[in-house]
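Good day; I would like, with your permission, to put a structural problem before you. The record follows directly beneath this note:
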Amino acid sequence: MEPAGAVFTAHLFRGLHAELMALLRGLSAEDWEKPTRAGAWRVRDVAAHVLDGNLRKLTFHRDGGPLPPPDAPVTDYASLLAHLNALNADWVKAARRIGPRVLVDLLAVAGPQVAEFVEGLDPFAPALFAVAWAGQDVSPNWLDTGREYTEGWHHQQQIREAVGAPLLTQREWLFPVLDVSMRALPFAYRDVEADAGQAVAFLITGEAGGAWSLRREAGGWRLFVGEVETAVCRVTVDADMAWRIFFKAIAPKEAESRVRIQGDTRLGQAFLGTLAVMARR
């Protein structure tokens, strides 16, 4: 067991983009209108949201464009979430004027530029935006890039599920998603009480799985890679269920029957509410 370090995902952007382009170019007119797990968004709306993320990355991060002022002060997690939801809704509403062919053409231009940009970043320099779901005020580029990777991956899965295409659950794609998402655990457990030194082990099974542990220390919970032998609680879940929990693709009550918790049940239950995306359970 060792302290959780950096997760590098910049090299995956080009391949993930290629998978998205192949998927979208094969969709029928009916496919573009199919509902997805993303609330009221249809396939076309999710694709437009991915484009929005690419354009924001290039405009604000790469080009240093000025940030639009929020309609209301952003002072905490809730107000940040409200601001982001409003930005997303505004874009998706406007993008319904854009046809699928134009959306795909724009994504084909923006995606490779995003990949080139993140590949050139110093992974340990401070990112423009902190990763709020990890509870950070300042984040290194590797974590912000990892957040972008998980965002692009899980939105592509929403489209794939909606149209019946195979999910990208091979280890090369899914393990980095899970590894980055586990960085949400210390923040998710921030209000969970435990004695100093007590630890929880998390075992994700399947081809894309792995082992991580949380240990309670003086300043809060600390994440480690590997399984702690003295865990007071062990949480075991398969990789498909784990990503669905992290990205709010399943309700905690529904997930509970698919997650095995051994030992201190209270400590294991907190895992069911862990999110690696800006949302509320």
